[in-house]
């Protein structure tokens, strides 16, 4: 028959932790998924870009870049040839020298010329830009928060269609109309990240339906040849930054004009002309340093595109999927391990997982420029913040539940000693020296068969109160109730030096309490009560025994069985307490009366039986019968050991 009662609170509590654990695990995984696909590329979510910058510095190569030559209008050039801006004739001469004397493959100016100048310099530059491998620069503005968009000069180098993504521009600073017919023009405008660092460049910019390439892309399209480049769908390309500024071949513009360097050192290279001078102010923040020339970003972007075109870029890996997979593995592993580990080990597990992920992210980062290096770390931090404390709370609740359960069987003083002891698992079965006391009401069936159910239940509770209180008061462990009796033992779960004497004290007190209850009942016309007690000491296995369906803390062994036989033998004696030789040998404060030898059921040899010499004990007043009938409810409702007696 199905039990119509609602589930107990304990059952409801066991269902709730599973739901909470599942919710924590799901949120932890969703955190990594959001970090991989939900965050904007320009935001350093969970310090992702800081970690990437650290990886960039570790992975940076000191090998020189042989394909690029940087011509720097540096402080020495300004000191020798005059302050900026230089005459256009000088710029034209610099470009012509690079293309003719030094046989450069192409020259790109990281300089915008929005205003025309006097002389032939602009015309010479215009002819070189129309007919030679010269790439001019223009700068697009991506700030839509200005009251009036910046519009200076005339943009050039536009195309109506271009594969890949584009970035919308709000304004521009372009060259003057005299240079608008240039065949190759590239954008040098930047979109810094939230922390001001330049990690990405817009490869394609769109403005009023026209598309404009970045300076590095314009150089590759102009003069490098090779296969087509696959542009990112977002229009933004993460700069690989394989080399810092010091790894590029940088020569002074004054040395180029003086033809002071070996022509072979520049032949066949792509040349970037710009300035690192502090006075010109083209300084930016990069993953390497907080103050680097903007010309260095253009060089790094050009190196990145050249590697992609030559097939030298790292093979693409699905970094986002790998990050989510790692987060799932860690979350599932934590869900399995946390209930089985202490909080310290759980924290150590997450710490180890974080270190492992950082090592993997270090390897993956060159292969996937867009995945979040810190998404799984956010998952680990979430688990540390919520899962570890929650499982610790569950562990504490389980410990409290175990402690409360132990208090049902073990005297409070013993529980306090257990809490102060270093016993890791007090319920684990151990072989201990114990004294077992088994008590039972003689003729239980005869006493209750003529009583109404309520009075029979009251008699049972009152009788069990008389048995239980002395056991607990004398530091005993309550094993179980046997309907109208109980089984208790001393010496477990913690060893007690005088466990035999404590059991005998409890037996003496039981006699007094039962006598008081019996006297009260006799006054009401009921027959007297008699309790039978068997006590024996010896080695027994005490601990938590049971199955997956039910568990109980009990003691098993020959001395326990002997105590049961002694309790049954009391029906043949006028004495209420029958004691075995093991208890007599261990007792120090009590005297005994020898009852003779007897072969107990299940024994092959006779043993000597004893009873407690109550004449040597001080006279104790008979306590009044208990008036409270809401005592301890029996844990089991088996029949009396001797209903027929």
Description:
This protein is of the alpha/beta class. The chain contains 17 helices and 23 strands. Strands 1, 2, 3, 4, 6, 7, 12 and 13 form an 8-stranded mixed sheet that branches. The model is unreliable at 1-15 and 618-645 (pLDDT under 50). Strand 22 (592-598) and strand 23 (607-612) form a beta hairpin. It folds into 3 domains: 16-56 and 316-392, no CATH class; 60-310, no CATH class; 410-616, Nucleotide cyclase, GGDEF domain (Alpha-Beta Plaits), CATH 3.30.70. It is rod-shaped and about 135 Å long.
Radius of gyration: 46 Å
Shape call: rod-shaped
Spatial separation of the terminal alpha carbons: 35 Å
Helical content band: 40-55%
- On the 0 to 100 scale, the average pLDDT is 86
Count of distinct strands: 23
Largest sheet: 8 strands, mixed
Low-confidence stretches: 1-15, 618-645
Secondary-structure-derived class: alpha/beta
Query: Given the structure, what is the number of helices?
Result: 17
Q: Report strand %.
A: 15-25%
Number of domains: 3
Structure in a nutshell:
This protein is of the alpha/beta class and 645 residues long.
């Amino acid at each position: 028959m199905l039990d119509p009662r609602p589930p107990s609170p304990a059952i409801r509590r066991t269902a709730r932790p599973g739901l909470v654990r599942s919710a924590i695990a799901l949120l932890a995984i969703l955190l990594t998924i959001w970090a991989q696909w939900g965050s904007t590329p320009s935001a350093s979510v969970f310090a992702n870009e800081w970690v990437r910058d650290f990886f960039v510095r570790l992975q940076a190569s000191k090998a020189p870049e042989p394909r690029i030559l940087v011509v720097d209008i540096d402080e020495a050039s300004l000191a020798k040839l005059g302050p900026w801006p230089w005459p256009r004739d000088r710029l034209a001469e610099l470009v012509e020298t690079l293309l003719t004397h030094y046989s450069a493959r192409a020259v790109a100016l990281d300089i915008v010329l929005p205003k025309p100048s006097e002389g032939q310099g602009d015309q010479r530059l215009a002819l070189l830009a129309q007919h030679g491998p010269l790439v001019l620069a223009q700068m697009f503005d991506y700030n839509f928060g200005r009251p009036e968009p910046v519009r200076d000069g005339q943009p050039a180098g536009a195309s109506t269609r271009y594969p890949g993504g584009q970035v919308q521009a709000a304004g521009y600073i372009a060259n003057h109309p005299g240079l608008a017919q240039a065949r190759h023009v590239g954008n040098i405008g930047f979109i810094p990240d939230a922390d001001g660092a330049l990690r990405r460049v817009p490869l394609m910019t769109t403005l009023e339906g026209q598309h404009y390439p970045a300076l590095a892309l314009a150089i590759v399209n102009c003069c490098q040849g090779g296969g087509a480049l696959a542009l990112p769908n977002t229009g933004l390309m993460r700069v690989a930054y394989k080399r810092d500024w010091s790894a590029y071949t940088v020569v002074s513009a004054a040395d180029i004009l003086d033809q002071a360097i070996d022509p072979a050192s520049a032949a066949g290279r792509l040349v970037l002309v710009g300035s690192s001078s502090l006075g010109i102010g083209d300084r930016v923040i990069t993953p390497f340093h907080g103050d680097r020339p903007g010309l260095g970003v253009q060089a790094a972007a050009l190196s990145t595109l050249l590697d992609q075109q030559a097939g030298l870029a790292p093979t693409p890996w699905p970094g986002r999927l790998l990050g989510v997979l790692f987060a799932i593995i860690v979350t599932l592993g934590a869900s399995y391990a946390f209930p089985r580990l202490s909080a310290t080990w759980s924290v150590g597990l997450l710490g180890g997982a974080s270190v492992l992920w950082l090592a993997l992210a270090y390897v993956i980062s060159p292969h996937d420029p867009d995945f979040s290096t810190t998404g799984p770390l956010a998952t680990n931090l979430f688990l540390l913040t919520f899962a570890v404390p929650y499982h610790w709370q569950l562990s504490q609740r389980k410990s409290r539940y175990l402690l409360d359960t132990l208090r049902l069987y073990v005297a409070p003083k013993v529980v306090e000693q257990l809490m102060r002891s270093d016993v890791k698992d007090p319920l684990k079965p151990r072989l201990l020296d114990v004294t077992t006391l088994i008590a039972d009401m003689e003729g239980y069936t005869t006493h209750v068969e003529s009583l109404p159910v309520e009075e029979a239940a009251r008699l049972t509770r009152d009788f069990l109160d008389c048995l239980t209180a002395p056991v607990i008061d004398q530091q005993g462990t309550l094993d179980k109730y046997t309907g109208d009796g109980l089984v208790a033992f001393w010496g477990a779960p913690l060893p007690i030096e005088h466990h035999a004497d404590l059991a005998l004290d409890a037996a003496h007190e039981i006699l007094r309490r039962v006598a008081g209850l019996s006297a009260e009942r006799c006054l009401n016309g009921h027959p007297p009560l008699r309790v039978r007690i068997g006590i024996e000491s010896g080695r027994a296995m005490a601990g938590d025994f049971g199955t997956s369906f039910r568990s109980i803390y009990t003691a098993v062994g020959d001395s326990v069985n002997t105590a049961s036989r002694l309790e049954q033998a009391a029906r043949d004696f006028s004495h209420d307490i029958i004691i075995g030789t093991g208890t007599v040998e261990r007792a120090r404060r009590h005297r005994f009366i020898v009852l003779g030898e007897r072969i107990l059921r299940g024994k092959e040899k006779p043993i000597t039986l004893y009873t407690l010499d109550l004449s040597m004990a001080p006279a104790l007043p008979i306590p009044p019968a208990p008036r409270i009938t809401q005592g301890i409810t029996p844990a089991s409702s088996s029949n009396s050991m001797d209903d027929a007696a």
